[in-house]
Amino acid sequence: MRALRLVLVASLLAASLAAAGCRFGQASFTGALSARTFDPGGTVFSYVDEHDAALLADADPRVAVVMTWVVFDPQSDLSDVEGSELSDISHELVLRDALALVFTSQSEVSAGESFESVVVGGDEDGDGRMTARVHLAPDRLSSSSSYADVVPLASRRTTTVELDVADFADLRELRGSVSIAFARTDNDPGDAVEGTYTGTFYAPLVEERVAEQNLALLQGDDVIGLPLAPRSAP
Q1: Is 147 exposed, middle or buried (0-12, 13-18, 19+ CB in 10 A)?
Q2: Which end of the chain is more exposed for a tag (fewer CB within 10 A), N or C?
């Protein structure tokens, strides 16, 4: 009976957080691609991908930063949320802005470090120290919308991150700035949309097991590539 009460309390707490619009972490971006802004600041957190599928610890694990427009509590088990509400959160994740940053080695994630991800035509072409998954909310359509209105985004995307704080022990948070620049390549049409989003983020550290289970429940893999698949063997 006590366990049931705890589950109900957790569920009500999660529901009240969503209803009240309480945000976890922080991210704020300026800039626009044409009229399209970018707002993944509803829920922002980080976690260390320390264990593989066999629960063996990685000596130098990956670090992920998650930024989504959707508001939820990443520290609470979303299994306690009612099915319809969980479905709504997952649905909104697909329809809203999101950004995932994955740093390849925790040992390199420190204050003052800079990272760059370059994606060309959907393929990562950076130095491998960080990858970035940018999810833009789909265009809103009306009854008169047609394919004649479609203007593609420039296909070269460069994401630059500069870390101001990277503390895994005491503060347990990451803070930094982000630039996401879209530029045309020779393969793009001349009207492909170029532009840059710039912003800052504050990402509190969440326990790996909780973070990964919640991301799996939200089916985040298709949207932001998280939770991460096991690291490939060298």
Answers
A1: exposed
A2: C
Q: What is the pTM of this model?
A: 0.89
CA within 13 Å, CB half, 125: 10
Give 162-180 pLDDT, tens digit per residue. 999 999 999 999 999 999 9
- What residue type is assigned to position 79 of the chain? S
SS3 79: helix
Q: How many other CB atoms are there within 10 angstroms of residue 150's CB atom?
A: 8
Q: How do the domains of the chain map onto residue ranges? A: 22-140+151-224
List of residues 6+ apart from 176 with CB closer than 8 A: 161, 162, 163, 164, 165, 166, 200, 201
Asked if 66 and 215 touch (Cβ cutoff 8 Å), the reply is: yes
Enumerate the β-bridge partners of residue 67: 44, 99
198 neighbors 179 (Cβ within 8 angstroms): yes
